Amino acid sequence: MSGMDDMQVFLTYGDIALASSLIVIVLIVSWKLRLQLTKTLLIAAIRTVVQLSFIGLILAWIFAREQWYEVLLILTIMTLIAGSAAKNRVKRTYKGLLTDTLLAVSASAVLVTAIAIVMILKVQPWYTPQFIIPILGLILGNSLTAISLTSNQLIETFHEQQGRIEMMLSLAARPFEAVHEPIRTAIVNGMTPTLNSMLVVGIVSLPGMMTGQILAGADPTQAVRYQIITMFLICVSSTLGCTISALLIYRRFFNKKKQLILPQ
């Protein structure tokens, strides 16, 4: 017998151990070139195995039960961790940054995920874990990167261009007019990784979701359709997240008198 439908590879712990041993190559390169990444690489490799193994057990349990409140709890935890991760990637922080990143991440990712589940995929019931959990996870992972890039650049720019912004305000410019260019640049910077991925997808790279489906034996045409949908979802979510984040930061840096302030 032959054909794609008959070809399915089941991975064992031995296969995982063999793949893990390839990290030795990376460690040797780090040691030879004195990259000082040995400790970080080891920690990252160990965390990858532990975290994915742990989440695999949890998802297997949740998939078997399909209880809406358990799925909702997982989604909430994922969103909170994503917001915290986005905040931790910002170098120059301020009081309230965590709240802002959480709002940006949750508002964009949850809205886009809801549209995907209810209107595009038409999943019944909406809390079917095999759909909503991976889709939200995929969107969160990309959104938090975009949001952190936007936040990081915008905050740095407000500090670096304080004099220019205050000069424009003194010349009767409205607050948003004075910072429109930094906001635009920061949002574009946050969107760049997503746009770059969209420009080369299918030509230079095969995304992880599509590759995973094909390796699992799915029809390539269906895998492509799912990938197209997820790429658009990621693009919309990242755009919304970057925009919301920029506007929340803008609000923090101006008081009611329309004066520029640098929050501590």
TrEMBL record:
GO terms for cellular component: plasma membrane. InterPro entries: UPF0014_fam. It is a multi-pass membrane protein. The chain crosses the membrane at residues 12-29, 41-62, 68-86, 98-121, 127-149, 194-216, 228-250. It is found in: Membrane. It holds the Pfam family UPF0014. The keyword ATP-binding does not apply. The keyword Protein biosynthesis does not apply. Its main location: membrane. Keywords: Membrane, Transmembrane, Transmembrane helix. PANTHER family: PROTEIN ALUMINUM SENSITIVE 3, UPF0014 INNER MEMBRANE PROTEIN YBBM-RELATED. Belongs to the UPF0014 family. This is YbbM seven transmembrane helix protein. It comes from Psychrobacter aquaticus CMS 56. The lineage of its organism: Bacteria, Pseudomonadati, Pseudomonadota, Gammaproteobacteria, Moraxellales.
